[in-house]
Amino acid sequence: MVTTHYKGSKEEVRALNAYVKLMRAAESVSTKIHGHLSEVNLTVSQFGVLEALLHRGPLSQAAIAKKILKSTGNITMVIDNLEKRVLVKRERDPGDRRSYAVTLTPSGKKLISSLFPRHAAGIVQGMNALSKSEQEKAQERRSR
To answer: pLDDT tens-digit profile of 5-35?
Structure first.
């Protein structure tokens, strides 16, 4: 059993141990669910951008960063790399010429449309480790 070596209060040690276990579990599930992305040479962040654009349509870089929980600086690099692969393009926002909207290219839409069903199935399979009730409780806690 992996535990913290921190010699703090009981409350701190309990919280740190729970955090370590939660992060290890999350990493384990994430690795299993995202394994297929390496087959198409995508990072988790790149996949997140493509998925956000597929389901939300054109978005600003700031909106994408917020949606996939990344910094705006990191998103710039992720989008630059997707643009090099001609999977996305930046277009001036007609409503605000200072801003750009990121959109899927036809090849980007084709790629994410073919990947997403497999991805969703992997999530369903991975989350089946939790009961329906546990999944619903986790969903409730997230929305608070």
So the answer is: 778 888 998 898 899 988 998 888 888 888 8
